[in-house]
Structures are given as C-alpha cells and as structure tokens.
Design a protein that fits this description.
Layout: H1 2-13, H2 29-36, H3 44-68, H4 76-89, H5 95-108, H6 111-122, H7 135-181, H8 193-220, H9 223-232, H10 244-256, H11 265-293
Helix pairs in contact: 1-4, 3-7, 3-8, 4-7, 5-6, 5-11, 7-8, 7-10, 7-11, 8-9, 8-10, 8-11, 9-10
Amino acid sequence: MNFLALFLGLGIERLLTHLFHLREFHWLDPIFDWVLRAQRISQPNLAIAAAALTAMLVVIPVGIVEWALQDRLAHLPQYVFAVIVLLFCLGPRDLAEEVNDYCKAVEEGDEAEYQHIANELLECTPEPGQPAPDVEEAVYAQANNRIFGVVFWFVLLGPTGAWLFRVLDLMQRRATHQACQESVADSAAAWPAVAQAILLLHRLFAWIPSRLLAVGYMLAGSYDGALAAWKKLLPVSSAMFPGPNDQLLGAVGKGAAPLAAEGDVIARARVARDLVSRTLWMIWCPVLALLTLYDLM
C-alpha cells in the first residue's frame, strides 16, 4: 500500500505545480518562532525535549487521522490520505523545475533570478565577501531534504513518518533563516539551545536516508569516482548549509556525475538534476517495488 501511494504521489507531483506554494507551510512559522525565542531554555536536554515536543504536537494530528482511517473501506481512504500527505511533504519546491529555472536564468543573464534560486537551494544568503557553496552540490544535498528523506520515512512509518521529516526540515530551515537575519556566526555553539536541538534532530533523521541516497548516486553514476570522493571527504563543521550530511551527498554526487567543464555551471547543474532523477527512478523505486513484491515492507 505504501509503495502504491508513493509511486502515485511521485508520479503526479509534477502535475500540481499550482499547489507548490501550499507546501511551504508558512502558517507554522509562528509556532517555530515561539519555540526558537524560548531563551530561558538553555539546558541541552531541555532544549531537545522542547524541540521534539514541538515537532510531535504538529505531527500528532496526522498520526491520529492515519490511525482513524485504518481498515476502513478496504483501505481506500487511508490510501488517498497517504497520497495527499506525501504530495504536501515533498518539496517545498520541485527540485528539477528549480534547476531548470536556474539554468534558464543563467543563460539569459538574469543575475537577480539565478541568485535568488541559488539562495533557495543553499537555504541562506551568503555573507558579503564569502564564496557561496557549490550549487551543483546543493542539488545533490537537497534531493535528500526535499525528496528522498521524505520517501524513506514514508516507507518506514507511512504518512506520519513523511510529515515528521518534513516538519523537522521546516524547523531547521526556520532556525537557519533566523540565524541569517541575526548574522549569527556559522557555528552551532553560537546558536540558542533550542536551535541547536532542532539542528541535531534534523541531522539525526537525515543521517540514514543520506547514506542510502549516496549509495544510490554510486550505483546510478560512476561507482569508482563516487567511492573515491567518499573516502577523500573531510567534513567541515558547520551550523549552516551544507551540514555533514549535505557535504557527503555533494561530494559523492559530484564524484558519481559524468564529467563536465568545471566552469560550466549550467551543464553541471543539469548533470546533477539528471543523476538525482536516475537515482530515484532507476535505483530506489525498483528496490521498493521488489520489497513490496516479496512482502518485506
């Protein structure tokens, strides 16, 4: 059932571009801001408890609905609910479409537009004078935050799992956004305790899917190049994007990708888009289909 809902959700997602603005969930920002402003929570354990409780309060309604729809009308309502939740958990924007818009803006010389898209992919506007992280690597990393992490937890825990991962991603994005606005140093130690806890929870939930996605890049591209990049990787501690999981995916993705001119940002962005698509549709969707056929899900 989960695989069928997953396949349908991924298949029709690109047809609903007019609904993408609803997947940004800005109406949750006041809740996240209230927790992030809890300056009195300074103990790490209390901060983790506060972050986890906030996430659970947002997730519980979805869990209640999923539980209430179990074993009703031959599972049809539960199936429809799973597809709807998955559609709204992917994103918030379509990654392939965003890469296409970025490439088009670069080709047309629209600096404001391609800088805006790059900042969306990088989750934060770089400080003046600092080089921005690689957009190509950001595509490989965002594939986990926007797609594969959601898919992984959807397969594992159903719609509730997918929504939980999306909520944690929304929370860490909000924490990063506030850090950018307040010019907080690029170090987790400089963040409020609750923001550090949110960052920790998101990275914990992204850890397993990021490794599985990296393996997918290796199988969908150059295995030798990806393995060499993985072995050479020396992660840099960072509170902002890219974090350790993001750096791993960026390095392995670039190692697995077909060669392109180093300075050709358009070609390299398109290569990244295509590798992500191959990994999802040619590696992990068949794996999930086989697991379903053998009743292992």
